[in-house]
Amino acid sequence: MTDKSPKVGFISLGCPKALVDSENILTQLRAEGYDLVADYDSADIVVVNTCGFIDDAIAESLDAIGEALNENGKVIVTGCLGAKGDIVQQQFPEVLAITGPHAQQDVMHAIHSHLPRPHDPFSDLVPKQGIKLTPQHYAYLKISEGCNHHCTFCIIPDLRGGLVSRPVTKVMQEAENLVNAGVKELLVISQDTSAYGVDVKYKNDFWRGQPIKTRMTELTTALVDFGIWIRLHYVYPYPHVDEVIPLMAEKKILPYLDIPFQHASQSVLKAMKRPANSENVLKRIEKWRDICPDITLRSTFIVGFPGETEQDFNLLVDFIDEAQLDRVGCFAYSEVEGARSNQLPDHVDEETKQDRLERFMTRQAVISADKLKQKVGTTLSVLVDGIEEDGTVIARSYADAPEIDGLVIVQPTEKANVGEFLDVTIINSDEHDLYAEISIGRH
Ligand code: SF4
Fold first, then answer.
1. At what angle do helices 16-31 and 104-114 cross, to 10 degrees?
2. Residue 80 main-chain phi, psi, to 5 deg
3. Residue whose CA is closest, atom 6 of ligand 1?
4. pLDDT(427) > 50
């Protein structure tokens, strides 16, 4: 790349789905011969990929746009905030272009008009796996876009449209490219992973001459052949989720399920338009643990949803007591512009919401700490994410997804390399993390 190449600065905010959008845009930019730079001064233009989900994310996105305008002046905005009416336009009329999420071609079009692309595309400089924002040893694999559900608190289906599944062939090809590039862990993501293929009626596609159904279980089974860690995220609790538990028990995919339950009270779940039978959920969890005792369950919940009574909240606390989930995220309900839940009666006052959030998290912290304590004395295989200056190893086990879960912090050792596996013995734990020492060596 010569110094004459047009230079693009990129700010990527938001969830892993937005991150994948950023990676796709960066990959195309690089393929077309644009240079990617990390500072405002050398950038000819700056793209800000925004998040518009909750108030804090909106504020962070608006700050980032403001900063890019101040520091550089030529700014293109994409992502979820771009799809939310004219918030960006009103606050920053000087931005050059605004698009919604998953709008790679629109972003490229805006870049082409404000910073014309060079004549000679350096496509051979782009690695097959594309440009990744994650470390070299793990990557997100997006299998579909959009969602067919209508959870009343969520505007994602309005922003990103209905479910569109990527063809199995494309997903498998991308997975293979990533594995060949050294990726050891694939994090399967989408808005609704278990709905994969619903839009194409689970039709057969082909990979290496073999038919594979466009369906979560079949795709996951095919991914097993790559022999790396496969982790499933955003799995909506459909009945057929049960089908992947045996794959976890056989250690073919990681025994880790990220399955948002959102609440446990029937009436709140009904108001959310979510599947509403927590007794069934408890029975399913029990069954999953019978089949795969090591399974790590991560879930998210919302407290203070409109109409949530103290009794509903207590039901939720009883549920988490009984479900003994390993990892839990919880949010106090906040209004999202355009969400149908805004129109529901009996909104919970802010103080009660915060109080319930605190009570919920305090209860769950005890559960999480207990669950981690049970691992003390066991041996785990961990993937090394980083090594600190004093040699302390920052790693994760099968039970820890990057960014959202805890860590396994291993005593300094010279045997560790970033992106490699290590066998460790757990010697201590706290609410979030495990502490370990190296055991029998690498594998
Ligand atoms: S399933 Fe997820 S993405 Fe789809 S509407 Fe519900 S919360 Fe939103």
1. 40
2. -60, -35
3. 151
4. yes
81/57 Cα distance (integer angstroms): 9
Work out the average pLDDT over 196-214.
92
For ligand 1, say whether the CB of 66 is within 6 Å of any of its atoms. Answer: no
- Residues 304 and 314: their CA atoms lie apart, in Å, by 12
Q: Considering the entire predicted model, what is its pTM?
A: 0.77
Residue 191 CA: nearest ligand 1 atom is: 3
Ligand 1 pocket check for 147: Cβ under 6 Å: yes
Burial 270-305 (b: 16+ CB within 10 A, else e): ebbebbbebeebeebbeebeeebeebbbbbbbbbbb
Of residues 21, 170, 38, 43, the one with CA closest to residue 107: 21
Tokens 């278990």 belong to which residue? Answer: 194
Sign of CA dihedral 270, 275, 278, 279: positive
Whole-number average pLDDT of the chain: 90
Ligand 1 pocket, 192 CB below 6 A? yes
CA distances to 63, 66, 87, 88 from 91, in Å: 11, 9, 6, 5
Ligand 1 lined by 114 (C-beta under 6 Å)? no
pLDDT given at position 442: 42
**Unique residue bearing structure tokens 């520091």:** 71
The pair phi, psi for residue 295, each rounded to 5°, is: -60, 135
pLDDT tens digit string along 356-375?
Answer: 999 999 999 999 999 999 99
Q: Which atom of ligand 1 is nearest to the CA of 236?
A: 1
The sign of the dihedral angle between the CA atoms of 432, 247, 258, 180 is: positive
Q: Could you read off the pLDDT of 324-354 as tens digits, one per residue?
A: 999 999 999 998 888 999 999 999 999 999 9
389 exposure class (CB count in 10 Å sphere: 0-12, 13-18, 19+) = exposed
Among 285, 165, 260, 258, residue whose Cα is nearest residue 218: 165
CB 149 less than 6 A from any atom of ligand 1: yes
Task: For residue 205, give both structure tokens.
Answer: 């596609």
- Residue 57: is its pLDDT beyond 80? yes
pLDDT of residue 238: 83
Section 271-299 average pLDDT: 90
> CA-CA distance, 21 to 77, in Å (whole number)?
13
**What is the C-alpha separation between 108 and 275, in angstroms, rounded?**
39
Contact 254, 398 (CB under 8 A): yes
Distance 435 CA to ligand 1 centre (A): 35
By residue count, the chain amounts to 443
